[in-house]
Amino acid sequence: MPIDLPQGTLDLLILKALSLQPMHxxxxxxxxxxxxxxxxxxxxxxxxxxLHRLERRGLIRAEWGASDNNRRAKYYELTRAGxxxxxAETDAWQKLTTAVALVLEQA
Amino acid sequence: xxxxxxxxxxxxxxxxxxxMDRELEEELQYHLERExxxxxxxxxxxxxARRRARAWFxxxxxIRDDTRxxxxxxxxxxxxxxxxxxxxGLAARPIFAGGVVLTLALGIGANATMFGIVxxxxxxxxATLRDAGTVHRIYTAYDWDGxxxxxxxxxxxxxxxxxxxxxxxxxxAAFQTRQLPVGDGTDTKEMSVxxxxxxxxxxxxxxxxxxxxxxxxxxxxxxxxxxxxLGHGFWQSKFGGRxxxxxxxxxxxxxxxxxxxxxxxxxVGMSDQGVPAAWIPLxxxxxxxxxxxxxxSTYGWSWLELVARRKHDISVAAAEADLKASYYQSWRxxxxxxxxxxxxxxxxxxxxxxxxxxxxGPLAGRESVVARWxxxxxxxxxxxxxxxxxxxLLSRAVGRxxxxxVRLALGVSRGxxxxxxxxxxxxxxxxxxxxxxxxxxxxxxxxxxxxxTADEAVAVTTDTxxxxxxxxxxxxxxxxxxxxxxxxxxxxxxxxxxxxGSREGTYRRGRTRTTLLVLQATLxxxxxxxxxxxxxxxxxxxxxxxxxxxxQIIVAGxxxxxxxxxxxxxxxxxxxxxIAAREVPGVTHAALAxxxxxxxxxxxxxxxxxxxxxxxxGRFILQAGSPDYFTTMGTRIVRGRAFDxxxxxxxxxxxxxxxxxxxxxxxxxxxxxxxxRIGADTAPCSTVIGVAEEMRTRSLTDTREYTYYIPATQFxxxxxxQLFARVSRDAATRVDDLRNRLQREMPGAAYVxxxxxxxxxxxxxxxxxxxxxxxxxxGGLALVLAAIGLYSLIAYDVAQRTQELGVRLALGASMSxxxxxxxxxxxxxxxxxxxxxxxxxxxGSKWMEGLMFRQSPRDPVVFGVVxxxxxxxxxxxxxxxxxxxxxxxPNIALRxx
Lengths: 107, 897
Description:
A: alpha+beta, B: twelve-stranded mixed sheet
């Protein structure tokens, strides 16, 4: 049974996915599907609003390019601000999970 | 960086909306295709694959909308929505909206008006002045007669010394604006003409509209060239803007000058004394005026204003030190030539580089101080207007509580709601701002006579600085008026608001509203106290005995304009003048005089046996008159007698002294019979034959100013004939008659100027007139606003409390009980305001002291009257709603809703 994505983590996952290479929307959704081993229900519908929001915030940059099947597709890549943001959020996330784990173990 | 990318993205979203929509479409389409292809390759039928892809994807429409939302366009779209909503809401309540807009228009208009004036008086540097930050006016300061003096006029010789010695300067110009006769024959009119060094024009970024400005050769010492540059306005009015004026001639003062150029439109020069009709070379004027080249080397004629351009890399202090060194050299040179008894060191002389605008410097006039005050007052009025509008909006918001609660329940976010309320106040403020500009346009036209000459246009709607100011004021107003209702709406318990009906809630008046009202009352009191003080000052000034009957006197002065007469001829002309003046219908008396109050005054050295250094005791002004002098002027003789026709040349010299002079020179003694030597300590005694009342000749406020009167026959005063004519009434209507009659006696190009004495004195009263007018206008405005505020608050209370009041009446309260209850709740607030405002005014009174005329800023009468007025207004404003409350029918009140 797939679980819902905790609020606010979609942005982080997108940034992480894009940190490997520039990708188009569908590829991102596929990638998230694979790496989470289908555990997360990545709502494809909320993917695009998130992408545009990140673009507006200057964390990712979009460019039209040719896809592997030779169609025009919109590729997203991390900006420098995006990289910084990813590092900061990853760090924060790890601290949070560690803390929560500690609480869960000891309490 | 993020903010920038955000802005760029939003702008693109706004302006390239269709492109972005198309791109999104393509992107989503691509995604669906890939998803479908994936399912197909997994073995599904194409149509089934497409269905699965779509189902998993969700509604394309919704995604499209969500994505659009994330573009940040929503803000702008909802803004448009909010504006439409606000406009609809306001249109539905035109009286409310109209009242608010009017209130704001008055507030913003008053401020835009005062900004325009203060900006011109204080902040704005002269138009097209190049690199204004490095341009300074040169002042000198020194000790003189035991007091520190600051001067902005310097002799030509000092100007030359600065030119030679000062290393800190990139440029130096000398100038002075004079009233000079311009034109020939009957065409002659006295106009402002600026006498300037050639370097003057290099301070500006202006090219002549026609021809050229004069150059250093045309301004070379000693004589310069007889050329003139016309002012644009004068060129238009006198020459109809014709382009062939260059090369023509124009007589200014005595000399015929060749017109070499026309200044561009809007060029006002350093203009602290209005826009001149023309500019002429300094040297040519000085040579003509002084009849030779002595002006070049003398330090005895301080008549030039100096502006300097400091070198970029030199600080103000360093430049001042540099100029000071040069100034000391000049001073010492002066000591060699003529005996100026003190050295620059002992006079602690310094040079000060001040702002170009006189009104920002050490010699700022009282008008500019008053203007600053009024600008502050205008701000207070704006605050009151804002408080009022906030109050009105608040009462509306409270009335809409249920509507707001419903909308919140329906899912409108609080942020959106706050935005909507702010939009409403922004719309109101915008309308108020536009209407305010119209008010300012009208107000500036009405006020400019106080400050500016007619040719300085005061355009509000075309002035970018004023427009910018009005825009900022509008935004501030929108925030100030919108913030309180918005915050209140954003708070509040939804459930409570929904549960209780609009009328069921227990009666509760917001503390915010009460505070706003008390604030209004307080500020109104402060303004009205200011108004009262200024009005009383003005009345004191107007009732102030000047030592003569200014309203009945016309001054006539001859300008010989190069016609030279010898002493006898001049005396004969003066005699003919006197006789001719007396022939004019309405003229009862006429007398020659040497000193004309607030225009020109005479002084001579004064020696009194047994009294040391008279000049330490004050300034003594000499008045010489023909026998009828005292009767003509209406100056009263307090003791002894006036001089008359029996005091002839060759007879014993006599003098009449003023009361104050008698008191400071012979304290505790009788002045009559005392000896005064006039002009030199070896001069024969002039015996004091009478004591006359004090005469104001230079200032209304300087108390160390005294006058002594001597018969003109006993002194040879080299001067063009001038006289006072006394008319039975309406001096203004006789001014032209007198001039026409006297002009017939004038030889050659000489001409006569006449004006009422009142016109010379008016400028002295101006600051109080202006203060009284503006404080009254603004104070009255504040009072009306406060009254409206109070009325609306109480009326609203009554509407809210109808039920409660009904219960009270039903339980047996009398109508007068209800009236008292309602009225006292409002009057109480005003009483608090009166006390606070009175305290505030008392506290601020120490700064008002200097602006008053023989008026204590702590006058209990003024404070008392203001308190009374406020209470009366409070009673009036509350009585309407109170009476309505008393007429509440308990039956209806209890049954309704």
